[in-house]
Amino acid sequence: QVQLQESGPGLVKPSETLSLTCTVSGGSITDYHWSWIRQPPGKGLEWIGYVHYSGSNDYNPSLKSRVTISIDTSKNQFSLKLSSVTAADTAVYYCASLIDNAFDIWGQGTLVTVSS
Amino acid sequence: DIQMTQSPSSLSASVGDRVTITCQASQDISNYVNWYQQKPGKTPKLLIYDASNLETGVPSRFSGSGSGTDFSLTISNLQPEDIATYYCQKYSGVPRFTFGQGTKLGIK
């Protein structure tokens, strides 16, 4: 059973870079595509982007200029970097597997607050 | 961009009721729609994929239908544990993945 766990700072200062890592356990990171999704407090879901171990990726155009999603097969991890953050980037960030265009397995989510 | 308009934004129904949530795409997206359930304080869970296919382990009272621009999620025989927010999600066009605004379902 594949499980995902997000990790990273819960507080980031405005204008800095948000960095999160998702560790995949119970399966190989080469099996699927992997995605990041966020949810501002009390609001809906927003897809951020995905990565595949082959190097392919895709990002939401609304965030593309600030986002990098990378993968480390040796550690069975993938990571999110979001630069130049503002309060609008405050959200619960989820990592998820992307299987046949569906977000099948989700991490528990981690709240990241942007504040000085 | 292809927009997904979900309605209603909230509704209340009684145990045993039949409930329908709809999602309308701004362009034809074939059957490229999934549905998720998010219970309060929990992670979203995939219910329906490719518009009408029930994910393994999901109760059969959940069903999905639609193609083109109009899609629906139906819960027959509503149960108390179905209290949640439901999201549609498309996987076509730009951006590749977009969620609907969500429908918050409560019990009367």
In short:
Helix content of chain A is 0%, strand content 53%. Chain A has no helices and eleven strands.
Structural summary, described in words:
- The complex is a heterodimer of chains A (116) and B (108).
- Chain A is mostly beta strands and 116 residues long.
- Chain A has strands at 3-7, 11-12, 18-25, 33-39, 46-51, 57-59, 67-72, 77-82, 91-99, 102-106, 110-114.
- In chain A, the strands form two sheets. In chain A, strands 2, 4, 5, 6, 9, 10 and 11 form a seven-stranded mixed sheet that branches. In chain A, strands 1-3-8-7 form a four-stranded antiparallel sheet, with no helix packed on it.
- In chain A, strand 4 (33-39) and strand 5 form a beta hairpin.
- Chain B is built from no helices and eleven strands.
- Chain B starts with a strand and ends with a strand.
- Helices cover 0% and strands 50% of the residues of chain B.
- In chain B, strands 2, 4, 5, 6, 9, 10 and 11 form a seven-stranded mixed sheet that branches. Chain B has a four-stranded antiparallel sheet with strand order 1-3-8-7, with no helix packed on it.
- Chains A and B meet through strand 10 of A and strand 5 and strand 10 of B.
Strand count, sense and barrel status of the largest sheet of chain B are: 7 strands, mixed
Averaged pLDDT of chain B: 97
How many strand elements of chain A? 11
Query: So what's the overall shape of chain B?
Result: globular
List segments of chain A where confidence is low: pLDDT < 50 over at least 5 consecutive residues: none
